[in-house]
Every structure is written in structure tokens, then in C-alpha cells.
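Anyone up for a design puzzle?
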């Protein structure tokens, strides 16, 4: 029962994370599921659904096809749609039912690629992980399969170019928020070569190997950053360039370019170690960067509670991964000042001061205007 939720919602699932990460890249993303995953995605998780077209499809898996293992219908439907639409790539995302059936997605991807001539890959989702896992693996595939090493193409003219990795509406909301982050970097002389993956097209992302350095703005971008370090030897820095931390991040980017070090985590440097005054809840890089900015500007000790899996390496000494509603409520019982999505308020102490920062991956479109 410790894994049940009775008051707060759960975070966006890995399948929606894949769709969100690839939404603007001109590919075709297919969820293999009866229809439930698609309805959750387009009615709750995707704020661009009514304003911007994308090739997001559901396979319409039937009970009979699931029981009989009829992969041929799945393959033929995708091939027919792809021959008409000619997407840049095809991405397959699994859901709980094909996961239980043991559907061989890598093999199906190879069959579809051979049949259509269109690059096809699968992302091993099953609806049991959170969005960081799904979106991160989707961008990792894009980095591994489509970004060329800088020696294979003309180097960009800028000596201060950076790729912004891990940018999706699930963490950052509307495009104007992303534009603000880019402006914060521009202010310190950095040219944002590509943004993974909002506001840029697939062709722009393919030139990412020309950048001098990568900036991992959320946990979603970490897998892609590691691939680009391996394949293109581009160093990476971890941190969200909010207004209080942009200068520190700029210095870290310069050091990474100069020393060609693999990685540096900006928001974990020089964190205060006194008794916690402010508790932040959410994705570790964005909230960790906000916590570091608060400490820098106001001198108030902070901690981050992270409700997402596989994020331990992105947390500081006083921060903590907290999974489940009951565990989160226990961690918050003595908190005095809390910064979190509005839907966390019901499990916070009545006498605490609560500051709202809506998180699309948690509350969907409910507070998008905020």
C-alpha cells in the first residue's frame, strides 16, 4: 500500500515522455497500446496538442492480436502510414500489455526499417517508469543514430556554441520559458546551437556535433549528453540557466570547453550545509538549480526532494529521492517553507508557507497559465 496514491497524482509515464521529446522533430512516434496511453498523453501531458501538428499514433492493439501475438498487423499499419507520410524517422514505444506479452520491439523496428527504408528505433518503455526515463532514452537514440561527429561536417563559426539538452514542456512548459533560458545564455555570450527538443527541427539537432559544449538543463538530457561525449567528445555541464545561476553556468561552460572535462554539475557546487529552511519538490536539475539560486541570492538553506527514479546522481548531500505519497508526506511533516506544484499542497503541513511552481509532468495543463 505504500506505493498507492490517494491524494496526489503520479508523474507522467515513460511513454508520454518519448512522445514529448520527439514531438517537434518530424518523426512518427507509435505507441503500441489499445488506446489508453494515447488519450492520457494528448489530454493531460501534451500542451502542444491543439496548436502544433505531430505524427503521434496509437496502434489500436486488440485483445485478439495481443493474445495471438499478431505483430504483422502492427508492422503493416506502420509501413502503410509511413509510405504516405514519409517521416524523418519512426519511433516505437511500448506500453504495459506488449511488455507483459514480451513483444520484441527491436526486431520489429528492424523489420520496419528494412521494409520502409526509414530509420526506425524502439524505446523500451512499458508505462511503469516516469517521463525522465522515456524522454531521456528517446533523445539518447536521436544522439546515437543521427548526430555526426564534428570531423564529418563543417565546424560552426562560433567559438561559444552550446546545445541545450533535456528541454520538453513536461519540465519547462510553454516555449516562452525556453526562450528565456536561451536569452540568459545569450547574455553571457553563448550561442545556442540547438535545443533538445523544443523550438528546433530535426535537421538542426543533427548538426549538434558542431557545438563546443552541451548544457544538460534537466535530467531528461543526461543520456544524450553522455552519448555526445562518447561519439563527438563534447563536454557537458549540468544545470538550468535561470536568472540567478546563469553566470555560474556560463563560467562552468567556459571551463568545460577550455579543459575538455567530461562533466561538471554547477548547482551542486557551494551549496550551504546548515539547517534546512526551504524545501523544493520536483525534477532534480531544474529544482536543484533553483535551490542553488535561492541560496546564492537570499542566503537561505535549501533542500530538494526528488520524486523521480534514477536521479540519485543529480542530488546533493541534503537532497533526497522520495518515492510515493506516504513517504513524501512523512518528509514534509516538519517543512516550514515549501516550493512545489500546487497539487502537493494537500499533503503539506497546514502551518507551512507554500509557493506554487506548476510542473506540467505532475499537474498537466491545470496551471499552464501560471
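Challenge accepted. My sequence:
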Amino acid at each position: 500500500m505504500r506505493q498507492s496514491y490517494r491524494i496526489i497524482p503520479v508523474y507522467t509515464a515513460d511513454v508520454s515522455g518519448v512522445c514529448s521529446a520527439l514531438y517537434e522533430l518530424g518523426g512518427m512516434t507509435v505507441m503500441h497500446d489499445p488506446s489508453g496511453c494515447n488519450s492520457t498523453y494528448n489530454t493531460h501531458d501534451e500542451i502542444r496538442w491543439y496548436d502544433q501538428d505531430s505524427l503521434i499514433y496509437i496502434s489500436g492493439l486488440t485483445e485478439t492480436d495481443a493474445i495471438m501475438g499478431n505483430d504483422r498487423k502492427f508492422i503493416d499499419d506502420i509501413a502503410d502510414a509511413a509510405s504516405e507520410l514519409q517521416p524523418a524517422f519512426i519511433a516505437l514505444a511500448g506500453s504495459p500489455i506488449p511488455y507483459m506479452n514480451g513483444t520484441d520491439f527491436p526486431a520489429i523496428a528492424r523489420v520496419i526499417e528494412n521494409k520502409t527504408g526509414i530509420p526506425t528505433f524502439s524505446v523500451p518503455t512499458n508505462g511503469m517508469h516516469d517521463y525522465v526515463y522515456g524522454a531521456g532514452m528517446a533523445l539518447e537514440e536521436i544522439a546515437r543514430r543521427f548526430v555526426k561527429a564534428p570531423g564529418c561536417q563543417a565546424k560552426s563559426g562560433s567559438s561559444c556554441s552550446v546545445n541545450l539538452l533535456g528541454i520538453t514542456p513536461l519540465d519547462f512548459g510553454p516555449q516562452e520559458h525556453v526562450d528565456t533560458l536561451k536569452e540568459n545564455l545569450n547574455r553571457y555570450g553563448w550561442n545556442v546551437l540547438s535545443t533538445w527538443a523544443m523550438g528546433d527541427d530535426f535537421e538542426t539537432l543533427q548538426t549538434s556535433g558542431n557545438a563546443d559544449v552541451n548544457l544538460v538543463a534537466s535530467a531528461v538530457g543526461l543520456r544524450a549528453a553522455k552519448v555526445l561525449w562518447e561519439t563527438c567528445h563534447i563536454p557537458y555541464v549540468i544545470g538550468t540557466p535561470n536568472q540567478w545561476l546563469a553566470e555560474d553556468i556560463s563560467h562552468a561552460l567556459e571551463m568545460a570547453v577550455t579543459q575538455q572535462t567530461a562533466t561538471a554539475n554547477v548547482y551542486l557546487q557551494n551549496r550551504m550545509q546548515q539547517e534546512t529552511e526551504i524545501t523544493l519538490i520536483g525534477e532534480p536539475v531544474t529544482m536543484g538549480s533553483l535551490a542553488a539560486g535561492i541560496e546564492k541570492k537570499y542566503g537561505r538553506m535549501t533542500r530538494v526532494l526528488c520524486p523521480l527514479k534514477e536521479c540519485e546522481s543529480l542530488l546533493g548531500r541534503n537532497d533526497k529521492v522520495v518515492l510515493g505519497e506516504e513517504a513524501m508526506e512523512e518528509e514534509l511533516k516538519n517543512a516550514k517553507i515549501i516550493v512545489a506544484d500546487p497539487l502537493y499542497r494537500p499533503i503539506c503541513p497546514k502551518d507551512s508557507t507554500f509557493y506554487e511552481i506548476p510542473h506540467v509532468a505532475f499537474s498537466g495543463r491545470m496551471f499552464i497559465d501560471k
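A detail worth pointing out: The first strand starts at residue 28 and ends at 32.
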